[in-house]
Amino acid sequence: MITKKYNKTKGNCKVTFSLTKEQVGDKRDVRVLADFNDWSWIDGVQLKNGKGGKYSGSVELPAQAAHYQFRYLVDGQQWMNDPDSEGYQPNVHGTTNCIFELEGLPAPVKKAAKKPAAKKAVAKKAPAKKAAPKKAAKATTAKADDLKRIEGIGPKIAGLLNDAGITTFAGLGKASTKKLKDVLEAAGPRFRLAKPDTWKQQAKLAAAGKDTELKKLQDELKGGVKK
User: Fold this and answer.
1) Domain limits at 202?
2) Cβ neighbours for 141, distance < 8 A, ≥ 6 positions apart
3) Which of 14, 136, 160, 213 is positioned for an S-S bond with 5, CB 3.0–4.6 A?
4) 86 in the same domain as 11
């Protein structure tokens, strides 16, 4: 189980991982290995055996939009997934990693500056000028779509795609698989495990408004990859 507690003062989020003794067993060495600690056993978040028959441990991460993958490693030998994970992502070892996502803290609301008091003296009116002909309105750009509707795309990956100029379902459907992989590759090791194999197919259905066909396809997927 994962719980999150955001701290506006520190600008971070305390993420707590927990498992029960029934899930793990008694007197076991349980650690969280994840992309935020480079999957290192030494740097793993250790879950201490506490009261109430529960193992738990925490880590503080920056409170910003981010997509993380993790797994539990018991006694340095047995891998486990969290049964209550927010999602799962296939990995290169033929199994799946657990997923959780963080959100950024809302920006503080700035108070509007007070306008200077109007002078009492009335300024003389300037001679009326002829109105300049109106310029033709610029063509509006296409409205951005919510790419998180695509199975396998979370907030962080959606942001990476937007930065790469892919903001709509139509654009995602036309993008080459190579370009999608290049975007993930350039974002670092945290995102290289993502599989964009079905993103284009899903995006084309979403762009065409074929919600029924899209849902049927997504029911056959797990982390954006066919089960």
Assistant:
1) 147-226
2) none
3) 14
4) yes
